[in-house]
Structure formats: C-alpha cells, structure tokens
Specification:
Strand content: under 5%
Number of helices: 28
Strand order of the largest sheet: 5-4-6-7
Largest sheet: 4 strands, antiparallel
Number of strands: 7
Length: 640
C-alpha cells in the first residue's frame, strides 16, 4: 500500500496522505484504512493489516514519546511525509516548550518567566513536526528546511509562474484526477504486489540517521512552504558554539536578542563588530576564551529573565567559575585580559540584579586579578581600563558600593569653560541661580558642566563626526560629571532633601543627554525610582514638613516632577511598580499644589519649563506622559 510507509529511525507508521503517524495496533490500523481517504475493505484490508502489524514497529508507549532530543533539533531536512507546522518556541526554555498557538506561548511566558504586557517577546517563530495529531499524543520537535531544498522549491515555483497562466488550472485538474484514481486503486494494488517491495524502501546512512528516510516513486510532498531565506549567524555564534554547552540555534538567538546589547554595558559595544568599543577591541582574543563567552551568555540569560535564577543561567555561571578556577589552580596562574573581562561581566550582572553577595565576591576577585595583571605581560587595553572605571562608577550609583577609583582621577582630564568664568552664576541656568542657597557649590558646578555638554551636542558639526570620535570626545565629559555627582551623595543628603533630589535629577539629565553608545535605561530608571521614594514622604498629605520643604522651592519641585515623568517613559520593565509609584507621587503633588495661588503656580510652571536643564526631547514630548499631562492640565485649567 503506497500511502502507508515506515519511518526507519523511530519505527513509526506514517500516512502520506494525512502527514501523521498511525498507532501500531490492529484496531488503529483498521480504523485508519477504512477511513474515507483510503476506503480499504475485505481481503485487501486484512492483508494490509497483517503486513503492517508484522513490521518492526515500536511499542505504543515508545511511539507516543518518540521524538528527536532537543540537542539534535532543529532537524534538517524535516522527516519525510510528516506535515510541517508553523509554531512558536519559548526562547528561555531552549526548545523544551513548543506550541502552534501564539496565545499559549504568551501565557506560558507570563506564568513561567514573569513576562509582562509590553515586555520584549520571549518566543520565536519556528517550524516543527509531530508524529501524531491527537492532543494527548502530540510531541512537537523543531525542524528546518535546508537552504538547498528551499531554493529548489522556490525555483520550481518560479518556473511554474513563468509559463502560460492558463496551463495551471489544467495541471491542478489532472493532479486531482490522478489523486482520486490512486485512492480508488490503493486497495486492489495491495493484492498484486508484495507490501515489502512496494511500500518499504529505506536508504541506510550510518553517519546521519536523519538521512535514512523512506523513499517512494513519485512520492508526494506533504509540506509545501515558501522558500526560506538563508540563515545568517551572528558573528559570535560560531565561536561560542565551540565552548558553550548550548544548542547553536539557542546561542544565535541569545546573541541576536536585545538583551545582548544591554547585558554587555558598560564594558563594550556589541552593536558593531568593527567599532572602537567592540568586544575584540576592548578584550582582544576574547572570542577564543571559554570563560568569557560563558560569562557573557550568562549575563544575557539573566537580563532576559530579569535576574531570576534558571537552570540555564546557573549552569552558565557554574561553568564560568569552574573555568576561572581551573586557570587559577595552575602552577603559574595567568589570567588573560579576556579572563578579567569575564570577572567584570559577572560583577556587572551582580549589581544590575542587586545580588550584593555575588557583587562583593566578584569585586574582590576583580581587584586581585587587576593586581596580578599589572605584574604580568598581559596588560589591559585603554578601552578595558575605561570599562573598569565605568564598572566601578555604575556599581556605586546603583547599589551604593564603595568606590575603588577616585572621582578626582577620571580616565581623561577635561577642561571646562566655567573654569575661566569669574563667577559660576554666569554659566548657570537662571532657575538654579534663584535657588542656589539650597544647593551645594559642587553640585552647581556639575550643572554648569551639563549645560556645556548639551551646548556641544547642539553644534551642527557634531552630527558629522564618526561614532568613535564622538565617543572619545563626549565620554570623558560624562565620566567627569557623573563621577563627581556620585561622590556628592553624602554631602547633598546632609544638606537636605532639595539638594539630594536635585543631584539625582542632574545625574539623569547628564546620562540621558547622550545615549548613543550606552542606551540602556536601567540606571536613569533606578535613579527615578530613588527620586520618587525620596519625594513621596515630603509630599504625602501635604504635611507641615512638606510645606516647609517645598513652599520656597515649588519651582524646583515642578522641574523634578518633569524629570521623573520623562525618565519613567524610558522604562522597559527594569523597575517593578515604577509607574504606580509615579502615579502616587503626582497625586500627592496635586494635593500640595492645590493650596498654592493659581497665578503664582502658573508662573512657577513656566519657570520649571524654561529655566533649568533638560535632556533632548523632554520638553517637546512631555505631554506624552499621562501623569505630567494631567498635572500640567490641572495647573493651566485652575481658576483664580
């Protein structure tokens, strides 16, 4: 019987007309052959059942669980005569969760991996097959059509389109007639030819079990999909495939994800492999270091899972630490710059996810590694030394860790324009001049430097500079400002809530002024959360304390609310409940502002929108944020 064949690898009967397997029981085979598509009856049915049931078939339980292992997927080419289905694969599950329903994979990502609405998808489209169509017996496995087969199919379709168009309906009619005739003769043909000679022909290939597929004369093609484009691997995928114990498809997916870009900040820029801050430029030969690649992918996985521990992440972390310990256990331990980069990646992953214990351990390990590196011939590149500076600064900003590098010694000395001014007030926006008595002098200097940074960015010639030149010009300016702002935390807190709130807001303005190289919004969003937590107790229920703090600085309060609303719009799920905290603060602010004079309040709002510092786009796009829009509408709609 030509419509039933044996899949030689898994010993499964497959119906070529339906594209699915048949259970290896007499009743299941009889029911299938008596169906409308086969219509097999009488002696032909009995002989067919006897021939098929005597084949070397797997047991029913083994057939239900029969599928290629995840490591062997995707199967190229797909198994012959099985339908190819279009579905979805959960990326964090690395091929262990497959479904044909987009809604199902969305619910799975939310329940298992904590994905929320608006977050980046945690799934990818894929092609897959299953031996059985019944719900209880479905076991999907991923497949992929080889580029050669895809191109051949595309060529055939193209050649068909180039012919006369009226030939196509005639061809379809002939194919339909042949199909009906073949079904009618399927039972009678069984009596004239032995089943073993007509339907079971296998091609043995010991080196590739997937090449051992059943062949038939004029076999129909069950799966017929458009020609697939060539798959272009990420440049790092071939290197990682040699040292990381993950499927190649999973590695390529991790490197192509948005999490890869944010996970590597602030160490190197993964957007262009030929940039001045590329992985190879910062850590030479890092693509050949197993510890570095495992650490990098561990950071990507942790970024995707928002710091939650997974089996995949823990295995990558354990592998990285084992590789580092293996090098340190040598009689003459030597750490390459890429090994130091692996420790730096572990450190940055720890402080981004608030893992204080791991951060302290990696900080001590990095200090010892840098000390050993200074005594060896494996010196760090200039870009790697800059990365050490930014790593130290970001950890101090996010988790308040003690800095190992002085703010007085930035990577590059910067000459500021205010140094030649007789008075600092001449270089300040007028809003800060009006409130300079509540702010420390060092903070006002940073404000003046932010103004100079933004003025430089507005020059027409800056847009014509290459990315490398812009980075080496602007990065020292940002490093100097942000390093000094981080150092001023204690002095501003001692001066009062107004000074500390302004310090956080100035830091966010500086960071958001130029984000072309490092565009992750984690740091400004975490600072926005800290600012919300700082302001809310001083405004709640408009207490007497709040009136004493903000009555003379209402203009600054409005500016702080604008900065917070602008940064919250950048959030991509980095901070939990950030928008709900913003809503509570703005509600308290409206309660406090309702006690102010309407005329004075409108005048203060105008000053908050004109007389301070702002990042690009904050003023023109301020009404896109609901909370600020409602607040500004509340003030402008108030009647005296």
């Amino acid at each position: 019987m030509q419509d039933i064949c044996l899949e030689p690898t898994f010993k499964v009967l497959i119906c070529k007309l339906h594209g699915y397997g048949v259970h290896p029981t007499k009743e299941a085979i009889r029911r299938h052959l008596r169906g409308e598509d086969h219509r097999c009856r009488g002696e032909a049915l009995r002989q067919a059942i006897s021939s098929l049931i005597n084949l070397p078939l797997s047991s029913l339980e083994a057939m239900r669980n029969a599928q290629p292992t995840v490591d062997a997927q995707p199967i190229v080419p797909p198994l012959s005569h099985l339908r190819v289905l279009h579905g979805w694969s959960c990326v964090p599950c690395a091929g262990h969760f497959l479904t044909t329903s987009l809604e199902v994979v969305q619910r799975h990502a939310a329940a298992t991996h904590g994905r929320r609405r608006g977050d980046q998808p945690l799934w990818e489209a894929c092609e897959m097959q299953t031996f059985f169509s019944e719900t209880k017996d479905r076991r999907y496995f991923r497949v992929a059509i080889s580029p050669a087969a895809a191109n051949e199919e595309n060529l055939q379709e193209q050649n068909g389109r180039e012919g006369l168009q009226y030939v196509q309906p005639l061809r379809e009619k002939v194919d339909l007639t042949n199909k009906v005739t073949r079904r009618k003769k399927s039972c009678s043909s069984l009596l004239s030819n032995p089943l073993a000679e007509r339907s079971i022909r296998t091609t043995a290939n010991a080196t590739n079990p997937w090449a051992s597929q059943t062949s038939y004369p004029h076999q129909p093609r069950i799966f017929s999909s458009p020609a697939q484009p060539l798959t272009f691997w990420h440049p790092f995928t071939p290197f990682a495939a040699r040292y990381v114990r993950l499927p190649v498809a999973r590695l390529d997916c991790l490197f192509k994800s948005n999490a890869f870009r944010t996970a590597s900040e602030p160490l190197f820029d993964p957007s262009h492999v030929d940039s001045a801050l590329s992985m190879h430029a910062v850590f030479p030969h890092s693509e050949e270091e197993p510890a570095f690649l495992n650490a990098l992918l561990y950071s990507v996985v942790q970024t995707i899972n928002r710091g939650k521990s997974t089996i995949e992440g823990l295995s990558l972390q354990a592998r990285t630490i084992a590789l580092l310990n293996e090098k340190l256990s040598l009689p003459l331990p030597t750490l390459s710059p890429a090994d130091i980069g692996a420790i730096m990646i572990l450190k940055t992953t720890a402080y981004k996810n608030y893992d204080f214990v791991a951060h302290d351990a990696h900080t001590r390990g990095l200090a010892a590694a840098l000390k050993a590196c200074s005594r060896s011939e494996n010196s760090l590149t200039t870009a790697a030394k800059r990365a050490v500076f930014w790593l130290d600064l970001c950890a101090a900003v996010l988790i308040g860790s003690e800095r190992s590098m002085s703010h007085l010694e930035p990577p590059q000395k910067v000459s500021w324009r205010r140094e030649s001014c007789p008075e600092l007030a001449q270089a300040l926006p007028i809003g800060f001049v009006r409130h300079q008595n509540a702010l420390p002098y060092d903070l006002l200097e940073c404000v003046s430097d932010v103004v100079e940074l933004q003025a430089f960015l507005r020059k027409r010639t800056v847009s014509q500079l290459s990315d490398s030149v812009k980075y080496h010009t602007l990065e020292p300016m940002q490093a100097s400002i942000e390093s000094r702002l981080a150092f001023q935390q204690q002095s501003c807190r001692q001066l009062g809530v107004v000074a500390e709130a302004c310090r956080l807001a100035v830091f966010m303005c500086c960071y958001c002024s130029w984000m072309e190289t490092w565009n992750d919004s984690l740091i400004p969003c975490r600072l926005a959360e800290r600012l919300l937590d700082l302001l809310e107790p001083t405004l709640f229920f408009s207490t007497q304390q709040a009136e004493n703090v903000w009555l003379q600085h209402t203009e600054i309060l409005l500016w702080l609310l604008l900065v917070t609303a602008s940064v919250v719009e950048l959030d991509q799920g980095h901070v939990e409940d950030l928008r709900s905290k913003q809503s509570r603060l703005f509600l308290s602010a409206r309660t406090f502002l309702s006690g102010c004079s309407v005329t004075r309040l409108k005048h203060l709002l105008q000053g908050a929108l004109q007389d301070f510092i702002y990042s690009k786009g904050w003023l023109t796009q301020r009404c896109y944020g609901k909370e600020w829009f409602d607040l500004e509408l509340f003030i402008n709609a108030s009647k005296s």
